[in-house]
Amino acid sequence: MSSTLSAGYYRPSPTAEYTEDSPGGNFDFFSRLVSSWEAAALIPDGPTRGVLVRSGVVLGRGGGAISQMLWPFWLGLGGPIGSGHQPFPWIHIQDLAGIICHALENECLQGVFNGVSPSSPETSNSTFTQEFAAALGRPALLPMPAWVVRAVFGVERAVMLLEGQKVVPKRTLESGYRFIFPDLSAALKDIVA
């Protein structure tokens, strides 16, 4: 069995790096929700092996984060959110699907796997913003102040945009999975092409 969950399991931090073995899951509503999903997905002594993928922001064509950002950035209205310094854990949708297939095809794999790019720990919101704008051939000059994010999304949801986690796919790499898009620039160019 495979279930895709969120890297929101880990506590937001500008410096801490989280592997699959790092603690988390009990500090806010969203982290507790992820913990509850994980508990429901892993059936103790069940007939199936449990595989959980904690994904970052999934980047792909025709949906998700990119579809919501595309028009503002295309119009030159995109920019960093808040300070822009917050970590931005991301993964290309082909790699997320690849990790799930890899886990299903390798019966020895079980437990938690971080579904984020290997370059994700070095990616900030500002880095993502600049790379996305470059892939579109557009400027990214207009930052979205933190107070606007809080006003629009509310405090709970704003945390997911204004803070982030440096998530490392340690077990994912150790399992032998080879990322198709380990580099943000190449991933974004593929998506907007």
Number of helices: 7
| Element pattern in H and E | EEHEEHEHEHHEHH
Strand line-up of the largest beta sheet: 1-3-6
**Biggest sheet, in brief?**
3 strands, parallel
- The tally of strands reads 7
pLDDT averaged residue by residue: 91
| Poorly predicted parts | none
Which class best fits the helix and strand makeup?
alpha/beta
User: Strand fraction band?
Assistant: 5-15%
Shape: globular
Q: What radius of gyration results from the CA coordinates?
A: 17 Å
Portion of residues in helices?
A: 40-55%
What distance lies between the first and last C-alpha atoms, to the nearest angstrom? 34 Å
Would you write up a description of this structure?
- This protein has helices at about 30-40, 65-75, 95-105, 125-135, 145-160, 170-175, 185-190; strands spanning about 1-5, 15-20, 50-55, 55-60, 90, 110-115, 165.
- Strands 1-3-6 form a 3-stranded parallel β-sheet, with helices on both faces. The chain has a two-stranded parallel sheet with strand order 2-7.
- The chain is globular and about 50 Å long.
- α2 (about 65-75) links the parallel β4 and β5 (about 90).
- The chain starts with a strand and ends with a helix.
- It is an alpha/beta fold and about 190 residues long.
